[in-house]
Amino acid sequence: MRAYPLGQINLPVMFRDRANFCTEIMTFDVVDFEGYYHAILGRPCYARFMAVPNYTYLKLKMLGLSDTITMGTTFPHAYTCNRENLEHATGLVNSVELKRLQEEVVSAMPDYHEPTTMSAFSLTEETKAMEIDPIDPTKMVRIGTKLPTK
Asked: What is the rounded radius of gyration, in angstroms, for the C-alpha atoms of the chain?
């Protein structure tokens, strides 16, 4: 699925609190797309803040007014977010796929009152009747005679 930008907006972005912070004006693309994220910060944001992401430890470090600003999360929280995002994305893709399939498939109800033919189940020379139970000779099964020897 693709999302096309509706426009752009400039917003001040601040990391941390008043004692130690870093603020920049960032330009965001506005899109009409359902998702869990309110904003996605990528490489341009990292370059603007001179931030260093560490995906192994789930930390983001950047320079602040008085000290280094370190932001992070926990592995269970990151896993939960990724799982929810996967389920949301799968639901979105499936809803689009379902609409496409509904347009392509012609709905038809079989007529159960129409008599059926037994031509699909007719006997041929390639089948042989075998008894299943020697006590009850009415219990029979048909097997193929053209089976390989192995």
From this structure: 33
Q: For residue 22, report the phi and psi dihedrals to the nearest 5 degrees.
A: -145, 125
State pLDDT tens for residues 74-86: 888 888 888 888 8
> Over the stretch 33-70, which tens digit does the pLDDT of each residue have?
777 666 777 788 888 888 888 888 888 888 888 888 88
For residue 83, the SS3 value is helix
DSSP per position, 4-46 = -EEEEEEEEEEEE-SSSEEEEEEEEEEE----S-S----HHHH
Residue with tokens 């370190």: 70
Taking the alpha carbons at both ends of the chain, their separation in whole angstroms is 51
| DSSP state at residue 138 | T
Residues 50, 56: Cα–Cα separation, whole Å: 19
